[in-house]
Fold Ring-1,2-phenylacetyl-CoA epoxidase subunit PaaA.
Amino acid sequence: ATEQGAESFERAIERDQRIEPRDWMPDAYRGTMVRQIAQHAHSEIIGMQPEGAWITRAPSLRRKAILLAKVQDEAGHGLYLYSAAETLGADRADLTDKLISGRQKYSSIFNYPTLTFADVGVIGWLVDGAAICNQVPLCRTSYGPYARAMIRICKEESFHQRQGYELLMTMMRGTPEQREMVQDAVDRWWWPSLMMFGPPDAESANTAQSMAWKIKRHTNDELRQRFVDMTVPQAEALGVRLPDPELRWNPERGHHDFGEVDWAEFRRVVGGGGPCNAERIAVRRAAHEEGAWVREAAAAYAAKQAARRDA
Ligand code: ACO
């Protein structure tokens, strides 16, 4: 049966068909999918914190309503993705445990602080922009539940990106101080946004296998380049400077050349040593512990309902 399963798995990948939860799949494929989906889910959940910090300090009711809705969307994406991981046999409580004990990763980007309200706009523009660049191809990833989740998530991410850009346009039409706040936020978030795409291809341990399985459709460097090319004209329209003296159009390549990312910083942040890693995990852990009574009550209620049904 395994041999037959392996054959139909290979055939499905070759023909660009989706792998579904009940299909046979290699253990390593399942393991990679759980790793990536869990990391993605954790990123959405931890990603609520940097922007969530501004909900109480939003400058107007309108901005507060928008930000509240956006952070709620991120919670929804996280829960949606945990459900996708469950279709592979992962246990949600176990995934949360691995996150708060540092055994599973989440995106490096959420370990930087949000110092001013301009950061909310820049996160929408650059961070959600990078997320879309990475996630649109994942709508065609080979694992069915993940691919379908990505379709809806990408629609909401596009909306997030536009709200960020609109916020920044508004600030850029404001006072010189507001324009300076936007430039300062761009200076701080630009390089970390480029790190979201992962290590350079030559150092990416998982890319080759994930491309062969059509989990990933493009390499880390390809998507990083696509993001830079997409963002340069947006920065011009906005009137901000991207903080890279080496950034320039290369007509031969048909792409922008850009400077080297500080990969030592990337490794430090992924390894737990970024400016906010400890705080992010502490907040997540506290929320989990404070929610224990809700989970217990829900489980007790479900058990009581089941007992009544069986009686
Ligand atoms: N932050 C933290 N860890 C990272 C990052 C990052 N920006 N980039 C790569 N890594 C990790 C990988 O998870 C991998 O670690 P592991 O093997 O221990 O799991 C290691 O660094 C080496 O990287 P790769 O071999 O390139 O890993 P992979 O093939 O999984 O590619 C990528 C990384 C591009 C992030 C991929 O996992 C992906 O596309 N994930 C889905 C998107 C996602 O998670 N987005 C989250 C942020 S966006 C948002 O939530 C708004």
